[in-house]
Amino acid sequence: MFFVFPSAEAIASYLSQELYQKIQLNPCMVLGLATGSTMEPLYADLAKRLQQQPLDLSQLTTFNLDEYIKLPPEHPQSYAYYMRQHLFDVLGLCPQQAHLPNGVCTDIQAECRAYSAKISAAGGLDYQLLGIGTNGHIGFNEPLTPFDSLTHVVQLSENTRLDNGRFFDNFADVPTHAITLGIQDILNAKEIVLVATGAHKAQVMADLFHSPIDESMPASALKQHPNIRICIDDAAAAQIPADQLQHVRE
Ligand code: F6R
Is the CB of 32 under 6 A from ligand 1? Predict the structure, then answer.
């Protein structure tokens, strides 16, 4: 379950090659995407690969995990902006195929219901990419989120707002709420890959490793999934027993 790579770049290269091949084999793939620092090397590698060897992406559909409430898509810290900047604009993906929850809609509850329904209508997620928060959140599913949750509004924990505060000028500007895919939506994906890199993720990786399947550790829900891989670098693996790790050295 825990695959260890020598660096964040090695994970990015491995997963970008895997994604490239999957899209090549199945151009109608439905891909679940995450934002955050962890994904940046992967998106950079994938964008480069697709620029060097273009594929027809017109049938590809993507769904992002989450979006801040009250940040419009043109706000530089919105996840819509992040995705355009890191992936969508480079790949030429249009809004009709690259979906994010709308954090500035008038009826948030209707938006949540519609988002889960849109994923089901697309045939479900074939492959879900995940990062992880230092408190174990996946998407923005904070500790104690029910494992049977669908897309919902979440009040961000102080821990998450502090972690994400690095992207904002003032802590007061960090949104307090977000829309996130629920844990059940994530578990419905056919295949899941969680990525964690850096020494600051070593503690949460150890917590996840030792955790029973319990709502106090949202990512522990993944332990019940039949097709989950956790890809980490040496720094993030530092506190997991060595005999439980599978090393990937290419
Ligand atoms: C973002 C998301 C979050 C992040 C997590 C890690 O779409 O779903 O769960 O993956 O907060 O963020 P980084 O990668 O910035 O450490």
Answer: no
C-beta 36 within 6 A of ligand 1: yes
Q: Report the separation in Å between the CA atom of 99 and the middle of ligand 1, taken as the mean of its atom positions.
A: 17
| Structure tokens belonging to residue 175 | 């949104």
Q: How far is CA 143 from the centre of its chain?
A: 16
H-assigned helices in 26-88 = 40-52, 79-83
- Please check whether residue 69 is in contact with residue 175, taking contact to mean a CB–CB distance below 8 angstroms: yes
pLDDT one-digit tens code per residue, 104-158: 999 999 999 999 999 999 999 999 999 999 999 999 999 999 999 999 999 999 9
- Answering whether pTM is above 0.85, one says yes
Instruction: Return the ∠ at Cα 235 (arms to 231 and 237), rounded to 5°.
Output: 50
User: 132 CA distance to ligand 1 centroid (A)?
Assistant: 5
pLDDT in tens, 66-100: 999 999 999 999 999 999 999 999 999 999 999 99
Q: Is 142 one of the catalytic residues?
A: yes
Q: Name the token pair of 48.
A: 């480069």
By CB atoms closer than 10 A (0-12, 13-18, 19+), residue 215 is middle
**Beta carbon of 65 within 6 Å of any ligand 1 atom:** yes
